[in-house]
Fungal-type protein kinase domain-containing protein (Heterobasidion irregulare), 701 residues
Amino acid sequence: MEISKAPAEYALLAEETENDFHGPMPITEFFDAFMKTKDDKKPPKRATQIFKNIPRVGKFEDHFKDAVEASGICQKLRFVNTTDDLDADFKRKPDMVAYKRSMQGGDVTDFELMELCIERKPETKDPFQDLAPSATSGDTNTVLHRSQEATMNRGQICSYAGLQLSAQNRFFLFTMVLLGDYVRFIRWDRAGAIVTERVNWRRDPTHLIMFLWKFNRFNDVQRGRDTSLTKPMARDIKRAKKAFDERARFLARLLGEDEETAQCLYSSDATFHQFCITDDDTHRKHYFIASKPHWQSGSPFGRATDGYIAYDITRQKLVYLKNSWRYLEDGIENEGATYRHLERSGVTGIPTMICSQDILGQDTRTHEYSSKEWFCKTTNPPRRHRLHRLVLGDIGRPLSQFRSSKELASATCDGMKAHDLAIRLARVRHGDLSAGNILISDSGKGILIDWDLAMRLPSEDNQRVDTQGPQGPTTKWQTGTWQFISAARLMDPDSTRHELRDELESGLHVLLYTSVRYRASHLPKEQREDLKKAFIEHFDSRSATVQGRTSGGRGKYEFFQPIGPTALSELGLEKFLSTPHASLIEALRKLFVPLYSAPRVLQRMRDMDQSRDSALEILKTSDRFIAIIEQHLEMDGWMENDVSDELRGCDQFFTEARGLIFAARRSSLLRANIKRGSGSAGMDNATPASLPFMAESNGED
């Protein structure tokens, strides 16, 4: 992302993550909880006076790193002043970073190699605040300093943490914020960030010295790195690269592109890692090689899914490897267990699973401290997460890369058929139908993926969920991706109702979103701007309720009125879509109109022959929904070469990136007793796959 876009990014990111910061944790408790070492060896005594004597004038960052060097407290680390050096890939520049002395490299910013990120801000622009002296607990206080400058600074350090977590394979990390004569330490994991109280390091540098001393002595595991990844053998890297090159050429041919300019599916040899996954079911070890993720989260929090095209060493073929931090909650199984159940139940239209593993021993820890008196309460308490690795045998294209609008409609239909089979045969509800969760296979078929928020249904009632079996507890949840959640659910943030009709409505929103998002560039600019307004209103409208919660869905509600928004009407869509394509969207729309329209209005509409009751009856199954798509696929008039704007390189509908969180596709779930939350508003250049249902919306000086 361009450095010039950083301020907007930070503002959005700060807003999105404001419920993910927790504290202020007492320094001594922070050290006891997160920074224990094997012995009580003390830092050199000279360190105290050296840090007290750091000059106030001149280049502070240079003075600080010189003090670290002279004190001898970080003999394994090399500190670098990076205030004037952008990371080559991420275009960001923290004030200081620490690298291992053993690492080769110059005095540059490199998020892939940094061990510790240090940011420096004025004391008055502290992103956080401590409890007032009179406060007895954090119940009625906040750890956030909400001035504009403080908010921007919080978004900035959040951006840096997200980049470091994304660029490295980590379970957690530490960062440090220098605030004039004060300092705070932060521990980040996927459940949230714990911020310490502020202490004066100039008056008494004991805590600052102790933090650096302990951090220097930590091994990779204690610093949060995932050491299960190893360096592959050179011959295996060579084989993997050959398979990647063949795949790139195949995709180029499939999409009508020049094979000679096919996009490379890997980076340098140094970026390759070997994953060892011990399957939870068979306990057999599987080995895979991958370069950098082909898709990854930019957020430091949430499921933080990373997706790799990987080389299966045993099968000698390419597979899809997925890392995600799943929720450890009653009522939600790990994705591998769900795939096994779907396959054993005979569900088709889903990827073939090769193996999966829950990574034990490295669960998030932020939630452990939510009952502490210093813990300022937030609307969304932190939840426990666990890293889950899943390998699938099928690799597909995103739905946004359709070769024709007919392929788009057909793939959507296939995804809805898989969704239907999961309910009928396996009693599993997907729970997160979105544009990013349907892939197009090499043969042009739709594949329904991302079952990590799926829930088991009781044998007779598909409104409730019970993953523990008939004797176990039943828990109600809401899951989904904001842009594709039904209007009814968005307009009632207190409701935990989630029925089949809501999932079917999500299927329509997927088709509408992808059709408009990746074909609207063909409209004249003036008409495109009008459509963009209607599009944003439909997929991202939201407002705060009196109780402080966030509701949405007004745009979708208007879409389902007998006479909906002109820009999204059948006539409006026909300006850039084929006749059967626009007719399909309109026919599906009419299925839901009776659910959102007053009976007296329906009675006056000649082409509306359904009542609310009859519509509800129809939407008890997927039959009519799927039949409508199939009927339209048989019609004449579909364009043959109306390729997605994304593939044609002429995507002009949304040209600005709107934040790491939006690209992150971070899913969330809503527990019935949570009081407040909001969906992500705004769009970016990526298709949202699992944007937060409950997260606040998403952001150098």
